[in-house]
Amino acid sequence: APGAESAKLQSWRVLLVAGDDSEAVFDNAVDRFTEVLASKPGIELYRLTSDRRLRSATRSIASAKAIDSALTGSAAQGCFVFMTSHGTTDGLYLRADYESKSTLSPGKLDRILDKQCGDRPTVVVISACHSGVFIGKASKGDNRIWLTAARDDRVSFGCGAEFELTYFDECLLVAWPKSKTWRQLFDRTNTCVRLKESELSESSSLPQSFFGAKVKDLELP
Question: 91-93 and 87-88 as β-strands: parallel, antiparallel, unpaired?
Answer without folding.
Answer: antiparallel
